[in-house]
Amino acid sequence: MKAHQITGTDGLSSLQIVTLPQPEPGPGEVLIRVRATCLNYRDYMNVMGIKGVTGPIPRIPCSDGAGEVAAVGAGVSTWKPGDRVVVPFMPTWLEGEFSQSHASQALGGAVDGMLREFVVMPEQSLLRVPEYLSLEEAATLPCAAVTAWDALHVRGGLKAGETVLVLGTGGVSIFALQFAKLAGARVLATTSSDDKAQRLLELGADAVHNYKTDPAWEDWALEQTGKRGVDKVIEIGGAETLNRSLKATRFGGHIALIGVLTGTSAEIQTVQILRKGIRLDGIYVGSREMFAAMLAEIERTKLHPVIDSTFNFEQAPEAFKRIESGRHFGKIVIRV
């Protein structure tokens, strides 16, 4: 089979197409013909060799993928050839609490990912793709969508009428906007251009702020809430934005710390967390159980993921350049 593999530490030039043995399913396992993968910023960081993120080399990148069952191993009864399936970010985290053992199986980082033609997965890890979704759409769900779902509904306990602040127009932020609106929340969003602002409004955002024309988005968020502060923040910036999110959050509010777009360490005003009684949760995607609950809601509401662009398998480096540019709106998909 063909696969894209990170072969060194020279950035995109290290991403090479290689030929590897096609895997075979063992007892309780399923062989999947991968039809689509999807990029997350984590995948870009892995390929670029950014310190603190990159896994062992060589490594097949990309955590997200969907495809068709090609064959099943002995004892498999849940799936049959031709079934359309999607693979969770951490195939061993079926339910319950998060642990290091699950983190050690995160696709595309700790272990090989989905940017390849075939993959073998445990029978119990897989989920069925809703009929109305394409495999390209399904491939956008494992990381960004489950992360947004965990942040809002599992860790966040979102209630109708609450105000959610989402930062930017990447995959997690867009899914968070969609899920929050389905739950009856008010959504404030930030972005870097008027064009993206208009698209956010069309998706249902109640108010949008262009941080390029006015960098003080935390003050804007406070104004939008009558100085009270927002109930929830989907914090995807990290190092350089967390203090601003703390300022924008109400007393007793919740911040879901998800991204590292601005770095992995910084001086944080911890006194703000203390004085305002803010709950700060690190969100590292979620379990298969969360994924299943999210899929049920997606299917009930017939929600469609927002896809920015789609590339062919051979164009994978161009897809990574697209995420590097920051011009994307939603998810970037690679057809396999």
How would you describe the overall organization of this protein?
This protein has helices at 41-48, 100-103, 135-138, 141-154, 171-182, 194-203, 217-224, 242-248, 270-276, 288-301, 316-325, and strands spanning 2-6, 15-19, 29-39, 64-72, 84-86, 118-122, 127-128, 163-167, 186-191, 207-210, 230-235, 249-257, 279-282, 307-311, 331-335. The chain is an alpha/beta fold and 336 residues long. The chain has two domains: 2-143 and 286-335, Medium-chain alcohol dehydrogenases, catalytic domain (Quinone Oxidoreductase, Chain A, domain 1); 156-282, Rossmann fold (3-Layer(aba) Sandwich), CATH 3.40.50.720. The model has no long low-confidence stretch (mean pLDDT 96).
CA distance, first residue to last residue: 11 Å
| N-to-C series of helices and strands | EEEHEEHEEHHEHEHEHEHEHEHEHE
* CATH class type of the largest domain: Alpha Beta
CATH topology of the largest domain: Quinone Oxidoreductase, Chain A, domain 1
The best one-word shape is: globular
The total strand number stands at 15
Q: What structural class should be given to the helix and strand makeup? A: alpha/beta
Helix coverage percent:
25-40%
What's the CATH superfamily of the largest domain, by name?
Medium-chain alcohol dehydrogenases, catalytic domain
Overall number of structural domains: 2
Poorly predicted regions: none
Overall pLDDT metric: 96
The share of residues in extended strands comes to 25-35%
CATH architecture descriptor of the largest domain:
Alpha-Beta Complex
- Total number of helical segments? 11
- Radius of gyration, rounded? 20 Å
Task: Characterize the main sheet.
Answer: 7 strands, mixed
